[in-house]
Amino acid sequence: QVQLQESGPGLVKPSQTLSLTCTVSGGSISSGDYYWSWIRQPPGKGLEWIGYIYYSGSTYSNPSLKSRITISVDTSKNQFSLKLRSVTAADTAVYYCARRTYLTPSYDYWGQGTLVTVSS
Amino acid sequence: QSVLTQPPSVSAAPGQKVTISCSGSSSNIGNNYVSWYQQLPGTAPKLLIYDNNKRPSGIPDRFSGSKSGTSATLGITGLQTGDEADYYCGTWDSSLSAPVFGGGTKLTVL
Fold first, then answer.
1. C-alpha separations of B44 from A40, A46, B91, B93 in Å
2. What are the strands of the beta sheet with B71-76, ordered from one edge?
3. What residue of B is the nearest CA neighbor of A46?
4. Residues of chain A neighbouring B92 (CB-CB closer than 8 A)
5. Which of A61, A77, A93, B103 has the highest count of CB atoms within 10 angstroms of its CB?
6. Mean pLDDT value across chain B
7. pLDDT value at position B59?
8. Does B33 contact chain A (CB < 8 Å)?
9. Average pLDDT in the A56-61 region?
10. pLDDT digits over B62-82, tens only?
């Protein structure tokens, strides 16, 4: 059974960088069948796609966030990571990592999510 | 403002059937597969339907999906109190070159 687990600080100051890591277990991140994704959900609101990465390192990001995002993968640790720069209160959200199947736009496994609050 | 439009809420009695709509355009639903997710309170979304009408292993056949033109529909029969959740549709948008989601629909089982 594939499991994903987010980790990282729950509180980030405005203008600083949000950094999260997703650890994948029960399956290899190097499988060519999936994209490894970040999705967020502001409190009380809907889902917003942030971006995803392929095991080869190819990344795809939400155009509205692209200038502030770096997504990377470490296949040796079976992890992938998100960095979001210059955060503001609008970036406060539950951040999920999820697995997207390569051929179709559906997310079949999700992490439990981690709440990141941007506040001084 | 979400790219895909869902009703904010729906409700029905236990044992009844409910449908949740998801409306889009030719750049998203009209030409791409739709998926549906259930988000129980305080938990991560869970995949219910993919490729318009396919159920992952373990999802009961009370849940069904369909697509017609630029709209998709999630159906739930034999409603249970445990079905109370937020439901989201999602697909790829070819114009935006990005995945998009609906704003979510809150299901209340009265």
1. 11, 12, 18, 23
2. B18-23, B71-76, B63-68
3. B103
4. 105
5. A93
6. 96
7. 97
8. yes
9. 92
10. 999 999 999 999 999 999 999
